[in-house]
Amino acid sequence: VLIYPLLNIYRFVKYLFTSHSSNFHDLKFLHNLWLQNRRNSSNLKIDFIKKNNFLSNDFTPKDKFFSHEFSINSQHGEDGVTAYIFSIIKSPNKTFLEIGAGGKTSNTECLLTNFGWKGALVDGSSEELKTTTDRFFKSGIQEKNIQTIVSWITKDNVNNLINDKLFTYNIDLLSIDIDGNDFWIWDGISSIKPRLVIIEYNASLGKKHSLVMKYNEKHNKKDHHPLGWYHGASLAALSKLGKTKGYSLVYCESSGVNAFFVRNDLLTNELKEMPIEIAYNHIRIEA
């Protein structure tokens, strides 16, 4: 019973006397300790990212990505991965488009709150979108930095929304999470070329086959399966789509939900395409 408290004390003392650790258990402990005590300090968030840039060279590329996972406002580890990627490819405009922005978590809230970003939130539910914006404004985000659009997104209207109502500037980040037609919406977007795309994949479809749900403009995932497993596309399908649009898969966060695609002209020796069989993670269902 005492083994875990004693182990945590050991890890904390070890952290005090070492500049960094190559042990993932120590890193995850530090990560959790840091989250609990410093959630509201943007300076320490940046310091955490910088510290992990000095990780052991023995780490694989996937290991290094994993060590950067943390969540401030995202559902899983997307906040940390996003910060890590932009530390390499840069974000000259600090702008985003988040499609499927309603709900309790967000892939862009941390950028808005702590790093001075601006952008647009799109969702088909006015109630869900209000939940998001109310939370943003309570965090001190200025209304001028957010555009909101209540619209049911389809592959036929997405470019019109972008062109007519949203943007006159280049987009650094595109996030798509609509629990259904994600593949088809990304496929339909031709009016912007974001530097980074975060998109949900359906890990239950495995990593070997290129599978996509049939396009259904009115799709609701729970209409087809009580647990909502009928949605989206496999990682292989999204990777193929990304290649046709000039993007490479660089990582999938460890919960098995979101994949990260970087525009090919921004790839470096530090940030390379990751093979599907390595990047893929099974869905992790937490209690």
Strand-helix topology:
Elements: H1 3-16, H2 24-38, H3 42-52, H4 61-67, H5 78-89, E1 95-99, H6 109-115, E2 118-123, H7 126-138, E3 146-150, H8 158-166, E4 173-176, H9 182-188, E5 196-200, H10 221-224, H11 235-245, E6 247-252, E7 258-263, H12 276-279
Parallel strand pairs: 1-2, 1-4, 2-3, 4-5
Antiparallel strand pairs: 5-7, 6-7
Helix and strand element order: HHHHHEHEHEHEHEHHEEH
- Give me the number of helical elements: 12
The chain-level mean pLDDT equals 81
Provide the helix percentage: 25-40%
Task: Please describe the biggest sheet, giving its number of strands, its sense, and whether it closes into a barrel.
Answer: 7 strands, mixed
Oligomer class: single chain
Distance N terminus to C terminus?
21 Å
Beta strand %: 5-15%
Structural category: alpha/beta
Instruction: Give the radius of gyration.
Output: 19 Å
The global form is globular
Unreliable residue runs: 19-26
How are the strands of the largest sheet arranged?
3-2-1-4-5-7-6
Task: Work out the number of β strands.
Answer: 7
